[in-house]
Design a protein that fits this description.
7 strands; 222 residues; 7-stranded mixed beta sheet; 13% strand; alpha+beta; L-fuculose-1-phosphate Aldolase
Length: 222
Amino acid sequence: MIDTSYNEIKKDFITALRIIYREGLSDAFAHLSVRSRGGDEMMFMPRKSPALVQADELFLVDFEKAVPQSSLHQAIYKARPDVKAVFHFHSPAVILLSVVGQSIQPMHNYSAIFYDGVPLYTGTGQVESPARAGEMAKLLGNGKALMLRGHGAVVVGQSVREVCMLALFLEESARLQTEATKLGTPMLIERDEAEKIAKRTFKPTSIERAWDHFAAKHANCD
């Protein structure tokens, strides 16, 4: 029997990779995962460009087996039972903010989604070991995103669609923040107001609307 639910997840998985690639959030290097229904495995991707991964190349792996690029995802799933999907990407505006020691500030509707703050991991280089991945997962805490110095960001959420949109919103927030600071001192939104905005802006119907937009934008591009 064909497992339609997994087929749909695989379809979203590949669509999200293409969106991230075509929107300029990665070149040949980004990786996505989604927790299995049983909760003790994740669907993962081969060590391959997001522009090239195919659905039949996706595979399940548990949280202990070492496979290339898997350690950060596995550490987050073990630390955060609530997380269902993880996306790590290398978008330029996020990297730019990270190397000057800045993080996302709530300035507009999308950046308000990150009202709890986006921690910045200041270590350099790759995620080279489970121990280092564990440090990153601990710094992420209960947040939606973690910025990595010179190495992009990781976002977490309840579905592939959600983390794809979070990645796009984080990069837009970083880009607007860098542009705004060239013009002057941005007016920031107070935390309580940002939380209210986030609850109105980032809800399931909004995620689906944004997903449909980007999926349509990049349909039939392969």
